[in-house]
Amino acid sequence: MKVAVIGAGPSGLTTLKTLREAGLDARGFEAGPRVGGQWVLDNPSGTSAAYRSLRTNTNPAMSRFTDFAFPADYPDYPSHEQMADWLARYAAHFGLADHIALETRVERVEPEPDGGFLVAASGRAQERFDAVVAATGNLWDPIRPSTPGSFDGPILHSKDYRDPTTPVDLRGRRVLVVGLGNSGCEIAAELSREARVLLSARSGNFIFPRLAPGRPAPPHPSEPIPALFRLLPVRIRDALFAKIFPRALARMTSALPRPESVGLPPAPSDPFQKRAIVNDEILRLLAEGRVTARPGLRAYHGREVEFEDGSREAIDAVVLATGYRFSLPYLAPEVLGVADPMDLRLYRGILHPRHPRLFVVGVMRVFCSIWPMAEQQAKWVAARLLDRFPLPSPRELERRAYPILREPVAHCPFRAHDLRREAGGR
Question: Mean pLDDT, consecutive 10-residue segments, the chain of 426 residues?
Fold first, then answer.
């Protein structure tokens, strides 16, 4: 069986390796000149959102693949250079290079009547595959909100940002960072050393420090789940986690100011509503006045911006840390069955219910690191293609499919356990 794996970032690499080890003729396609995806700074593929100071938000114990650990000398939170190097080592260790077409962008994937696919890629003749795995991620197509009015200064997206001088010199200027997420907090913290920074937040979020005394190590998705939790229905698991979560957060942030005390909106009451922010600096910088919290952005007025509370500020530049849309440009809307891939519903968060050999790996909302979860997804794909477990009826596949990026945030060890159980693993 020939399988096309689109993308050679973390999810694409672990999928390619897993499928080939299962005996499938899997072949990778990567638009950039090297493997690593978003972790390759200034990747010519256009899919990297890395900035020079970028580090992981999950530690090596959470982020490793089951059969390939991080080097012992790596820090608790590796840099983008170290991540790119680790992924290159992974590809070399498992002999994946000969099975990846680099600098080859997949332009179109068309389903065939027999369930296979025609794959058209740059510089290559169209080729038929029995199955396709989309592993191009969801952190590369920037969302640039349409804000009323016009602004007389530079407006960057966090994907454009590299450092305080690139692509625009922001040193000594008044900069508005829009968005309370990981990128927004990290960029605001970095710019605060060189500029006067305002941080606009429309809604609150949970903020964890990277390093906290007595912080428990979260379970890795490959670790076994205690028998009691394996037997519990999902709703009861989630209810228990929702009770434990605020206590754990309070313990880890006891030495930090509360978000409301430094001008941020309160975090949501439901811990499954948003993926938490991991940042050691932003609350302290807000408390010290080196970063100033502001409400959501309402409009531009020349060199001023207006916020939702009616206040205005003179600003020199804007950095939009407003996230990314999920895009699959090589799959037409009529193939996906939705106009917006953000609404895409997949069985087990992986399998397209109308195209049972079309899979998406590495796109999910989880508390933990995505990469080991992508590895578990790849193992599920391999088991499915080898027919090691049956699928429900087409009607049941449709009913049980869920929107992968509009569902609540998932507790990943449980999600990994559910995938292993269905695929017949342990």
Answer: 97 98 98 97 94 93 92 94 98 98 98 97 96 97 97 98 98 98 97 98 91 59 64 80 82 86 92 88 96 98 97 98 97 96 96 97 90 95 96 96 89 76 72
What SS3 state is found at 173?
coil
Q: Cα separation of 340 and 343, whole Å?
A: 6
Q: In CATH, which of 3.40.50.1970, 3.30.200.20, 3.50.50.60, 3.40.640.10 is domain 145-212+253-320?
A: 3.50.50.60
Which residues partner with 4 through β-bridges?
A: 27, 132
145-212+253-320 has the same fold as 2-141+324-423: yes
Contacts of 243 (CB under 8 A, 6+ apart): none
Dihedral pair phi/psi, residue 277, rounded to 5°: -90, 140
Predicted confidence at residue 89, as pLDDT, reads 98
Q: What pLDDT, on the 0 to 100 scale, is given for residue 223? A: 65
Give the pLDDT confidence score for residue 423 in this predicted structure. 83
Q: Does domain 2-141+324-423 have CATH number 3.40.50.150?
A: no
**What is the reported pLDDT for 209?**
87
Structure tokens at 319: 């950095």
Torsions phi, psi for 49 (to 5 deg): -110, 20
> Contact 313/198 with Cβ under 8 angstroms?
yes
CA dihedral (236, 369, 248, 417) in degrees, to 10, reads: 30
Instruction: Tell me what pLDDT residue 363 has.
Output: 96
Q: Please give the distance of CA 285 from its chain centroid, rounded to a whole number.
A: 26
Q: What is the DSSP string of 267-302?
A: PPS-TTSSPPEE-SSHHHHHHHTSEEEE--EEEEEE
Instruction: Provide the whole-model pTM.
Output: 0.93
Mention every residue, 6+ apart, whose C-beta is less than 8 A from residue 268. 203, 204, 205, 206, 274
- Residue 151, strand partner residues: 302
The structural domains of the chain, with segments of one domain joined by +, span: 2-141+324-423, 145-212+253-320
